[in-house]
Amino acid sequence: MKLNLFAVLTVAAGVLAGCGGREDADTLAVHAPPPPAPGVEIATQPVVETKPAEAAPVVPSGGTSALPPELAPVQQGLEAFKAQHNRLPNNVEEMVEKKIIPALPKLPVDKIYFIDHDTGRVMISSGP
């Protein structure tokens, strides 16, 4: 099946021409601001590009932002427990029992998690 080159060019020209639509002065006036009154000077302000505000990093109540990777989810669980129950958990296992965190991240054999109730932070210490 041969395409008629003339037909293809005619259709392409119609599409490129906008199919006969035109904008007149009435249409443009809707989108343009009204002109200033005679003798009124319009003050323009420089355009300042701003970046959207970034979310602040979550800092545990103890005040340090750099937590070891195994400690961060436990500290977040402690903050969630405190928000839900208005108290600190008795121990880290209580956060698992109440399903605040799914499980405690594994630590080396000689290390344990504990809650410092004075600072409200989860800590890692040597075992008993």
Give the SSE layout.
Layout: H1 5-16, H2 25-31, H3 72-85, H4 92-97, E1 111-116, E2 121-126
Antiparallel strand pairs: 1-2
Explain this structure.
The protein is α+β, with helices and mostly antiparallel strands and 128 residues long. The chain has a domain of 55 residues. The protein is 30% helix and 9% strand. The chain is built from four helices and two strands, in the order ααααββ. The chain has a two-stranded antiparallel sheet. The longest helix is centred in the middle third of the chain and has 14 residues. It starts with a helix and ends with a strand. About 9% of the residues have low confidence.
Short summary of the structure?
This protein has 128 residues and is an alpha+beta fold. The chain is built from 4 helices and 2 strands; from the N terminus they run ααααββ.
Number of helices: 4
Low-confidence stretches: 53-64
As a percent range, the share of helical residues equals 25-40%
The tally of strands reads 2
Query: H/E order of the elements?
Result: HHHHEE
- Taking all residues together, what is the mean pLDDT? 72
Largest sheet: 2 strands, antiparallel
**Major β-sheet strand ordering:** 1-2
